[in-house]
Specification:
Chain lengths: 187, 69
C-alpha cells in the first residue's frame, strides 16, 4: 500500500472525527498525522525535529487524547504509533503486524514529544513505551491494511484486536469507504 | 471507439508503412487504431476516480487496495 491510500484514509478518519466532535464536543480528541510526519522526523536516517517543528503550530498535541502516526519503517513496512496523552504521563504504543519490538520508532516518537513540550512551552510528560500484541499478517503485503484498521478501531474507542475478519474483507471495505468518501461509525 | 471523423479510410488502409514488406500489418489504419487504444489507456490511468481532501486516487491505488492485487 502507498502513502496516497494511507493518507486518503487518514483524511476520512479526520472528517469522521470532526463530525463526531461537532455533534459531541466531549468526545475524545484525536490528532491524525499523515505518513510524511515520521519521514520528515527521521529525515535522511537522522532525527530532525526542526523538519516538523511547524507541523503543530495550529494543534496542541498535549490537549489531545490520542495521536496517530502511521510510519513506513525502513521504507518497506507500515506500522502504527498511537500516543495516549494523559495530564502528566502518557503511553506510546507501537503496533506492528509482524510482531517486532522495534525500539527506534517509539524512541523517536518519545524524543519528538519531549521536543514538542520544550518548543511549545508545555510541561514534560512521563512516557511509557509499549508493544501491544497484534494479530499477525499472513503474507508480505498486508501491513498497510493492519495499520488502517488499527487506526479505525482505536479512533472508535475499540480494541485493536477486534480486527477479526479476513484481510480481503478489510481491503474491500477500505476501497468502498474511499469510493464513498466517508467512514461508518463515530470516533 | 474513434469518432467517425477519425476512422481510418479505406485508402489509408491500403498504405503499407514498411515498403519492404507488402504484407506488413503496419498500415496507416492499423497505426491510427493502435495509437488510439494506447492513448485511451494512458488517459484513463491518469484520471482520478475520487479525490479525498487534496489526495486524488487513481485506478492504480484501487488495484493496490483490492485483494489479490
Amino acid at each position: 500500500m502507498d502513502d496516497e491510500e494511507l493518507n486518503a484514509y487518514g483524511v476520512l478518519l479526520e472528517l469522521r472525527h470532526k463530525k463526531t466532535t461537532d455533534v459531541n464536543p466531549t468526545a475524545p480528541k484525536h490528532l491524525l498525522f499523515n505518513t510524511f510526519l515520521f519521514k520528515q522526523l527521521w529525515y535522511l536516517q537522522k532525527y530532525s525535529y526542526h523538519m516538523v517543528r511547524r507541523w503543530t503550530k495550529n494543534n496542541d498535541v498535549f490537549s489531545m487524547d490520542t495521536i496517530f502516526i502511521p510510519v513506513n519503517h525502513a521504507n518497506s513496512h507500515w506500522v502504527l504509533v498511537a500516543v495516549r496523552v494523559g495530564a502528566e504521563a502518557g503511553t506510546i504504543s507501537f503496533f506492528d503486524s509482524l510482531g517486532s519490538r522495534l525500539k527506534q520508532v517509539p524512541l523517536t516518537t518519545r524524543q519528538w514529544l519531549m521536543n514538542e513540550a520544550k518548543d511549545k512551552g508545555k510541561p514534560q510528560h512521563e512516557w511509557t513505551i509499549e508493544h501491544p500484541y497484534c494479530r499477525q499478517q499472513e503474507n508480505a503485503d498486508e501491513c498497510g491494511v493492519f495499520t488502517l484498521v488499527h487506526m479505525d478501531l482505536l479512533a472508535r474507542g475499540m480494541d485493536h484486536m477486534a480486527m477479526t475478519k479476513t484481510t480481503a474483507y478489510y481491503r474491500c471495505r477500505i476501497a468502498a469507504e474511499l469510493l464513498a468518501g466517508c467512514l461508518r461509525g463515530q470516533g | 471507439m474513434l469518432p467517425a471523423s477519425e476512422h481510418p479510410k479505406d485508402e489509408q488502409s491500403a498504405v503499407v508503412e514498411d515498403p519492404e514488406d507488402p504484407t506488413s500489418p503496419l498500415t496507416q489504419a492499423a497505426m491510427i487504431a493502435v495509437n488510439a487504444v494506447v492513448k485511451t489507456t494512458r488517459t484513463r490511468a491518469l484520471l482520478s476516480i475520487v479525490k479525498i481532501g487534496a489526495i486524488p486516487l487513481h485506478e492504480g491505488n484501487f488495484k493496490n487496495l483490492l485483494p489479490d492485487s
